[in-house]
Amino acid sequence: MTAAPQFIDLNHHLSPETLARKVNPLKDIIRVVTNNPQLISLANGDPHHSLYPIRRIDYEVASVASDDPVAQWKSLGASAPTQILSTSKDDESKRLLNSALAYGHGAGLSEALRVVTDINIKYHTAPNHVVTMTLGNADAITKCLRMLATPGDSFLADEFTFAPMPMAAEAHGVNWVPVKIDSGGLVPEELERILANWDPKRGRRPHVLYTTPCGQNPTGSTLSQERRKQIYDIAQRYDIIIIEDDPYYFLQYDAPGSEPAHMTKDFAKSLLSIDVDGRVIRIDTFSKIMAPGMRLGWITSHPAFHTHLVKFIDLSTQNPHGFGQILIVELLGPHGWQLAGFDRWVRSLCADYQRRRDFLLALFERDVASTGFASADVPEAGMFIWVRVDVEKHPRFVRAADDATGANVVKTNTTTLMTELFDACIADGLVICPSSVFILPADPRYDDMPSPIDDRSNFIRVTFAGSEETMAAGIPILGRVLKEFFAGSSPTK
Amino acid sequence: MTAAPQFIDLNHHLSPETLARKVNPLKDIIRVVTNNPQLISLANGDPHHSLYPIRRIDYEVASVASDDPVAQWKSLGASAPTQILSTSKDDESKRLLNSALAYGHGAGLSEALRVVTDINIKYHTAPNHVVTMTLGNADAITKCLRMLATPGDSFLADEFTFAPMPMAAEAHGVNWVPVKIDSGGLVPEELERILANWDPKRGRRPHVLYTTPCGQNPTGSTLSQERRKQIYDIAQRYDIIIIEDDPYYFLQYDAPGSEPAHMTKDFAKSLLSIDVDGRVIRIDTFSKIMAPGMRLGWITSHPAFHTHLVKFIDLSTQNPHGFGQILIVELLGPHGWQLAGFDRWVRSLCADYQRRRDFLLALFERDVASTGFASADVPEAGMFIWVRVDVEKHPRFVRAADDATGANVVKTNTTTLMTELFDACIADGLVICPSSVFILPADPRYDDMPSPIDDRSNFIRVTFAGSEETMAAGIPILGRVLKEFFAGSSPTK
């Protein structure tokens, strides 16, 4: 790895100098105590561990002894084999329990950092990057945005993206710049076009790109290795820091109908793995592979970012909760699944989601695509299919003459029709996500997309994360509503 | 409660209008799904609970059947009676486990909100205030500051305070205004003086006061009921929102040597309890009464603040971790300690800390006060004694003539001597906290304190939270170092 990116620009409210001057005195004292166990400390006001009323925590988790542990877990139900991860004040795990229940280092417990580092080493090539524990990806993204943003900055992101994330950045004074996305994910040529033609009147050129390479939410698209390389090259040339938000990394699928070959093959190479400059900040989570309510994940970054992230953590959420850290330490440790068992679990989980995807796609072909009014690409990863509605076939579809208006003026009534379709689904008992809720807010003064996103918002997001019963009940409704809707019935109110 | 305070001024980056327009579409869809269970949802991309690999969580906790459960817990060690709080997919607690491990409402699980509301009702009088779960007080304070701060604002706080909290506010562009504190805590007359004489050149008048009413960190001071009333009156007249950070509420002591009468008597009345306007935002935590590594607490506020806090949570840390919420729900629930057992635990814990305080005070009298170079008030709450060092008795103490300099110019070498004392303690194997690390940073242009805080920083913070062994080993060192130091030996180093 070369030196840190030149363009590390930290929030002016919280400059390194300010932090060094004001936080370090107290932290220095704690460090003196930690590094010199022979010293007697009357300094830290920490409750003594003898007063914690917790003697033992047992997590009963799925066994991963079989080749397909998720299938077994689901089919055997209450009789599926389990193992108990026990952490107690009374045995060798005492130190872990005591330190997990105490105030801790902002980065996380050293044991937890070690297990996520082991995960990184198995799945990514990222020498010299270091890990920081988080409370899941929303927390991680918010902290990265705070670290990298100065109010007035412009950041790049997929033009359709998970709605709360851009909102969080706006709270830090960031303006978003949408980059066009297609069925293969973010389009490198569009990224380059924006950067090459950047108008200085908009403020300084963006130095941050937020993107989701696998099973992007909401479009379900996955970046090919070639696009990843192109995007990284552009980032090097324009000195961009890439926030790689990759919650669906372990849910990467093969072609429909095929046996899940990824049970043995390698997962796609992450942006982190091709990072030689330290410009990729990768964000991982246990939410999709374990449980979202765990609120635990990790950031992998250049050490310079790690140092600042830890300062942000010490000044806000502090050390991550001990309960989740104990679970992952025991789970990945010698008495738990270990890394080989974790790998079996995530591959088995991936196979399960691939079957769900294929189940949904089959229903979709039969009941929705067959109407001739909608289509969808096969997602290679994640939890969503992105359904294109052929809104231009609707009897009330209207398009203004091309020469009648300016480049970024809405020319169609797509938004109105899609709202009617959403309402019609609700009226028939089905909830789907309209694409409009995922539109990245752009500055209209600089919107030079070939066509306005409102005219391209003829998509709905449908998930296959739910049960087969839900899909079997929901997809036929979608097909029926589409047929009625395109038959030109007046809007359900 | 009357209407919300007039002076609710939310961060301009994240105005209610912005939030309503941009977050609500997706949240609206989730609300539609939640409120209409008969609808079939293909909208939310949540992993199905059948895929969470966790079947059961057992917390083995102290029994609170005895009258003094903490004393029993400590004295019986590994043979102390316990009870197991079990939450499982296979029994009546299934719903709790499934919802705790799923994505959840930013405010917290409804079951968790109910148990902290029960705690509030038992200990406080706060009709119409509502609760929001947090990740402990640092998280809570940061979120309150974000909610209330517009960059350039001035906020009021105790002149000595826990260092990371003012730092967090500075990151949001807040300037701090120190209010003088004495052995009885924040001085109401000083608060009024600052507000009455506010110079508009400093920006708008402060509308937020951050204070710790019980066992303030670092001074150990506790506000009397009379001062609380005075401070609340001032807050009403100047329309101030009070952030009541009260981690030591349950650690309130009687006079030294007395039997812990508070085992039965009422705890002091919180600022929340006297709040009729909705202008007190109270912050509680399980860190001091259970374990800090839990990272769980709650905010009690006017519903208007709650609404905005939940938006901040949805845009950053999201719902609090399920593990800690399960623990408190089970602990306070019908199979756990219940509220009566919780009350026994906190009162017993309080008695334990009172004994620790008295143990430390006796050592202090014998080894430190006896030197004639230091003294301390008896703290009525918390974990700290605030030791006044009679630095003016040091042979190298220097004071400039009063007429030689301006009002806020440092006149003594107190800081230098206190640094030497700190270093001398370290050299003899003892770590204490010098008061300098707790000084609230003030704008020197407006520092009109009767004397500069540097000249009043002749204090050290000593904790009685540690073990008796630590105190018995540490306090004699402090006495010895003081004697040598005041004998005028040259600075170590």
UniProtKB/TrEMBL annotation, chains A, B:
In this protein, which residues make up the domain named Aminotransferase class I/classII large? 126-471
Q: Give the record's keywords alphabetically.
A: Aminotransferase, Pyridoxal phosphate, Transferase
Which domain of life, per UniProt? Answer: Eukaryota
Q: Name one GO biological process term.
A: lysine biosynthetic process via aminoadipic acid
Q: Does the keyword rRNA-binding apply?
A: no
The molecular function GO annotations come to: 2-aminoadipate transaminase activity; aromatic-amino-acid transaminase activity; pyridoxal phosphate binding
Please list the cofactors this protein needs.
pyridoxal 5'-phosphate
A Pfam short name: Aminotran_1_2
Q: Report the family membership.
A: Belongs to the class-I pyridoxal-phosphate-dependent aminotransferase family.
This chain belongs to the protein called Aromatic amino acid aminotransferase C56E4.03
The organism of origin for this protein: Trametes pubescens
